[in-house]
Design brief:
- The protein folds into three domains: 143 residues, Creatinase/prolidase N-terminal domain (Creatine Amidinohydrolase, Chain A, domain 1, 3-Layer(aba) Sandwich); 139 residues, Creatine Amidinohydrolase, Chain A, domain 1 (3-Layer(aba) Sandwich); 288 residues, Creatinase/methionine aminopeptidase superfamily (Creatine Amidinohydrolase, Alpha-Beta Complex), CATH 3.90.230.10.
- Helices cover 35% and strands 21% of the residues.
- The chain has 19 helices and 30 strands.
- Helix 10 links the parallel strand 11 and strand 12.
- The radius of gyration is 25 Å and the shape is globular.
- The termini are far apart.
Length: 595
């Protein structure tokens, strides 16, 4: 239990009083914002302010006499540590949805409020379906929590920054005209874009409104003639950005968005109902617009990197590899002697990356988990959990970087002291699956779910598995987690040349250690038949060696050995000459087993 629960008790009481004044019996509060983003500005961290829970996925439901925090298995230990059980019960959201909890715990006739900015139409429909016969769902014009959060931070007001057209591969006007052709083909008048990364990609801009992802928080309406209404505070758009985005972009303050949408009576608007706030659907319906349900068409375009983006991303991975190899070299010297903690490892990662040109900061909160902490999939060291790294044990390091022209994500697991036979066995099984996916050749049209088993096969043979996806899409100086593709049981989108995906199988023994190995790969054409059929594969962009102390040589077959030899030759030839002599000597010692 948290030491000081009084602030949360007082906040919860004030919140309950406010919703009672609004004529409500309960309220649903998900951890998100009006952009449905993964990373939030400080002013949108409502769940953390009200409950103390700081995980990236969670929903609060507050009734008059009961309250719950619903989150998934990644945060089971964290939510118990952060939330006072006297105020909130906790539930696994993969088993009990907010809709089910409300149906089981609210009273017949209750009025349950929600903020239409914080839910998608699909989410609200699911709750309506569960409770509509017994209780009422009520959208509110203003979030009641904001009224009681008296010292709430202000909205971020950072200026937009240009993303070079020569890196993007096309200027904003060209991108908008390409997308406008699709709008016309669908018989629509406009496309509503509510995801910040889609707007930033389309305009070739980046920003600093949230941690970890270089976003300008904004919405946009693209018309069928290529003109675009950009709903963003004008103070965030300096004259240089107006010139950069090109003709046809109309900057409109967000407060004027309802008026602009009201002008679409009897006009057809494309809209992603699965990713956008229900507020937009309500406004368009009130205006008499015809809504065309359509997945965000920017997403698949953004996922396929241009030739210039691909070249920039390869350069970024070279810089990131230099930093990571320097870190691993230092860990070999210092961590083996018990001189470092988890937080100090994170600090050293940042120091080495800052030395590389163009580094803008991490792409997510670093995971540096030693021993039992490494078994917590989304662990983040805090002063309370900060472990000293000393033999024996495994250190799992999962970190990413945002550079001015690319995004990285890498995981390496390192032996501290002599690893046990079980550690070596499990690491080798994970590595074999990692190599199997790296070596995969597959016909065009293959989806991520079809490839997912390649990374799990050796673990499955041993009766083991891991409880997360094998790979996610990655942006180009944008989100480290990018759709629409993934390599996972949910990966239904086909992989296409130019897409970036991670390859990160793992194994976690609770209370002892965690193992994960992660590279970023790019889909490429391996072979093209005369009839046009194409065989696809992957090019590995991450160039950092694996820990040889954890690899059981006798379990590596000749095909795997051949792949490792080619991979290590790439590391030696591309990264080796860029290292200081001491680090280069260390690298050679890591790779000579397979070279």
């Amino acid at each position: 239990m948290p030491e000081n629960t009084h602030p949360y008790q007082d906040r919860l009481a004030a919140f309950r009083k406010k919703i009672e004044e609004m004529g409500l019996d309960g309220f649903i509060l998900p951890r998100t914002d009006e952009y449905q983003g993964e990373f939030l500005a400080a002013c949108a961290e409502r769940v953390a302010w009200l409950s103390g829970f700081t995980g990236s996925a969670g929903t609060l439901v507050i009734l008059k006499d009961r309250a719950v925090v619903l989150t998934d298995g990644r945060y089971t230990l964290q939510v118990e540590r952060e939330v006072d059980p006297a105020l909130f019960e906790t539930q696994d959201s993969t088993r009990i949805t907010p809709a089910y909890w409300i149906a089981q715990n609210a009273k017949d006739g209750d009025k349950i409020g929600f903020d239409p900015w914080l839910h998608t139409p699909a989410q609200i429909e699911a709750i309506y379906k569960a409770v509509s016969n017994r209780m009422a769902l009520k959208p509110v014009p203003a979030n009641p929590l904001d009224a009681v959060w008296t010292d709430r931070p202000g909205r971020p007001m950072n200026p937009a920054e240009p993303f070079p057209h020569d890196v993007a591969g096309a200027d904003s006007l060209a991108k908008r005209m390409d997308l406008a052709a699709e709008i016309k083909a669908k018989g629509a008048d406009a496309l509503l874009l509510t995801a910040c990364d889609s707007v930033c990609w389309l305009l070739n801009v980046r920003g600093r409104d949230v941690l970890y992802t270089p976003l300008v928080q904004s919405h946009a309406l693209l018309h069928a003639d290529g003109a675009l209404d950009w709903f963003v505070d004008p103070r965030k758009v300096p004259p240089a950005i107006i010139a950069h985005v090109g003709q046809g972009v109309n900057v409109i303050p967000p407060d004027n968005m309802p008026l602009r949408l009201s002008q679409f009576a009897n006009r057809k608007v494309m809209f992603d109902r699965d990713r956008s706030p229900v507020w937009f659907e309500q406004k368009l319906e009130q205006a008499g617009a015809v809504i065309i349900a359509q997945k965000d068409p920017v997403e698949p375009r953004k996922a396929i990197k241009s030739d210039t983006e691909s070249a920039a991303i390869r350069d970024v991975h070279m810089r990131d590899a230099i930093a990571m190899i320097q870190l691993l070299h230092e860990l070999d010297r210092e961590a083996q002697k018990g001189r470092l903690t988890e937080i100090e490892v994170d600090e050293k990662i940042q120091q080495y990356k800052i030395q590389q040109g163009g580094y803008q900061g991490p792409s997510f909160a670093t995971i540096a988990g030693f021993a039992a902490n490494g078994a917590i999939i989304h662990y983040r060291a805090t002063p309370e959990t900060n472990a000293k790294i000393e033999p024996p044990g495994l250190l799992l390091i999962d970190c990413g970087g945002q550079y001015s022209w690319g995004t990285t994500d890498i995981t390496r697991t390192v032996a501290i002291g002599q690893p046990t036979p079980d550690m070596q066995k499990h690491y080798t099984l994970v590595l074999k699956g990692h190599i199997a996916l790296s070596r995969a050749k597959f016909p065009e049209g293959t989806t991520g779910v079809q490839l997912d088993t390649l990374a799990r096969q050796h673990l499955w043979d041993a009766g083991l598995d891991y409880a997360h996806g094998t790979g996610h899409g990655v942006g180009c100086y944008l989100g480290v987690h990018e759709g629409p593709v993934s390599i996972s049981p949910r990966g239904r989108e086909p992989l296409k040349p130019g897409m970036l995906l991670t390859n990160e199988p793992g194994y976690y023994r609770a209370g002892e250690y965690g193992i994960r190995i992660e590279n970023i790969m790019q889909v490429r054409v391996e072979k093209e038949e005369p009839d046009g059929r194409r065989l696809l594969g992957f090019r590995t962009l991450t160039l950092v060696p694996y820990d040889p102390r954890l690899i059981l040589q006798e379990e590596i077959n000749e095909d795997e050995r051949r792949w490792l030899r080619a991979y290590y030759l790439d590391i030696e030839e591309i990264i080796g000459p860029l290292l200081r002599p001491e680090a280069r000597k260390w690298l050679a010692a890591q790779t000579n087993v397979f070279i």
